[in-house]
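**User:** My hope is that you can spare some time for a protein that puzzles me. I have put the entry right below:
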Amino acid sequence: MLFIQGGGKDVHDAWDDKLVASLERELGPDYLIRYPRMPDEADPHAGTWKKAIAQHVRELGDETILVAHSVGAAILLAYLGAMPEASQRGTVFLINPPFISPVVGDGGWPAGELPPTKSLAAALSDGAGLHLYFGTADQTVPPAHADLFAKTFPRANVRRLRGRDHQLDGDLSEVARDIRAHGEISGPPSSERIR
């Protein structure tokens, strides 16, 4: 499994490491979780992160489960949308992903260097195999983004977790349950954190 962190100062070690720890506890020793530090985490650039994601996906192989948080989730979606063969890999789990919009005021985050989320729908089969989790108390990615994703990816599993914040209160039990439900086990029994 590859876990892509969110962006921001010290996010890898001070924030998203708790999400990875929650997955480790919930999934147990049968799942290998690779948690690399993304380049320049305090100021993420989509092109640089997509190259890093591509490298990790190549190293881990075709059976890799992809999990990402926040802006890391938006960048992972952009990577999958640009790589048709990668988008066929199966199940992807995104935690509080921002909906990227080209139009200011229509509810999403400004596009910047990321493609608009709507433009990725065709490449991602309208969300088949896509699982999204949104905290209803998230003050970073507004909960309304869940509705935008549900409309854009009608085949996606969109879960709204009542009262949970941007970090889902450090509890990824629902994500782990969905991963186990898909019966996707990757790698030898252990976990590792690659920095």
The radius of gyration is 15 Å. Residues 184-195 have pLDDT under 50 and may be disordered. The longest helix spans residues 46-60. Residues 2-181 form a domain with the Rossmann fold fold (CATH 3.40.50.1820).
